[in-house]
Predict the structure of FMN-binding protein.
Amino acid sequence: MVKLTEDMKESIANVRPLPLATASKDGIPNVIPIGMCKLVDDATIWIVDNYFLKTRNNLEENPKASLYVWGEGSKGCFQIKGDVEIKTEGDDYDAAYAMAKEKGEKYPAKALIVMKITDVFECKGGPEAGKKLL
């Protein structure tokens, strides 16, 4: 099981927006900025689907995604890859829905994307670029 470092956890909590990349079953890529996500444990990230279109279609066809973490507030530069599950009911979805509504009634929280982290890679330039960290 992948276990994020404290610096990685802090970066995920502090950096917004985070680019989320997906691909269709035919390999057509898509990337969007996301702002509503939460690290729930060392290997799980919740992402709230408020306005996904191509992203949601891609995740239904190909349940894999990647997050890029870098920017003001980050302690490094890394890429997270993982397997996803889409939830539209249940306790986890209800908690994510409440989280979205706390930020504003305008957020519909159509689904909860549960990302189970499988790999983490280095993104900064230099000889370690692309190296698997976890």
Q: What stands out?
A: The longest helix spans residues 91-103. Residues 6-122 form a domain with the Pnp Oxidase; Chain A fold (CATH 2.30.110.10). The longest strand covers residues 111-122.
